[in-house]
């Protein structure tokens, strides 16, 4: 299906091209009217004059309409000389605008105008793998990558939109249309000092929250030093990568092979995966035991409760399920 928004986004000089198109069409209409007025017998109606002007200016020249008078032939010669030059200039301008727009897009100079997209800040192997995992779930999810060090869009991710710019500048998030984004993921820069990397992540979060206060934010921190500041800045989720990796390694030490088990549980594929579900109304203020009896099936294994920012895994069977709780399942999809 032809997409008009693709044309608008592709041509960076779209308005200029539309003006040029208008000039060419106006020129064709004018010549078509004049030739019809001068030679009404050879060009019985206005449309015949437009048709002749169009095929002449585009060098097709079918010969189905031909001026017969001297004045008509003079107009024809002027049309050939001036029209071809005008039409050639239009085609050249169109081609150059297309090339420049594509280069500008690949180098991160674009603006994104749609909504419900995901924004990832920072290009690294983690963000690369994240993009792959998101597209495994849904190839149609639009992802915006923000990075100030890349010179052009990564070859590994041709389907994403790349925006080159500082993650601590409002203008960058305005170009990414952060106000209409679904979620932003801020990755840590592991190539600099850990404390500086975390401080930069918090500053990035403050910037994007200033542009879009309601956007759901996931922030990666390397150390625990900036957790409080990230919470104050409005982080919805904080991933302390060093702590999580240490816990994963510890499980591998205690139970050899456990790291693979945890990795399999975290995968979001077509088979088994972790998921939240809202507590059914009939289970509110009932025991966790009743939730197990009501909701647990061979395909849905109930693991625990998510209560606000607290996660309760394997709670006592007598624990009460409250309104607003989420049930944590390991589900077979």
Largest sheet: 6 strands, parallel
Query: Which CATH first-tier class of the largest domain would you pick?
Result: Alpha Beta
Shape: elongated
Helix and strand sequence: HHHHEHEEHEHEHEHHEHEEE
Secondary-structure-based class equals alpha/beta
Strand content: 15-25%
- Terminal-residue CA separation: 32 Å
List unreliable stretches of 5+ residues. Answer: 1-12
**Helicity level, as a percent range?**
40-55%
**CATH architecture call of the largest domain:** 3-Layer(aba) Sandwich
**Spatial order of the strands forming the largest sheet:** 3-2-1-4-5-6
> Please, how many domains?
3
CATH topology of the largest domain: Rossmann fold
The average pLDDT value, as a whole number, equals 87
- Classified in CATH, the superfamily of the largest domain is NAD(P)-binding Rossmann-like Domain
Number of helices: 11
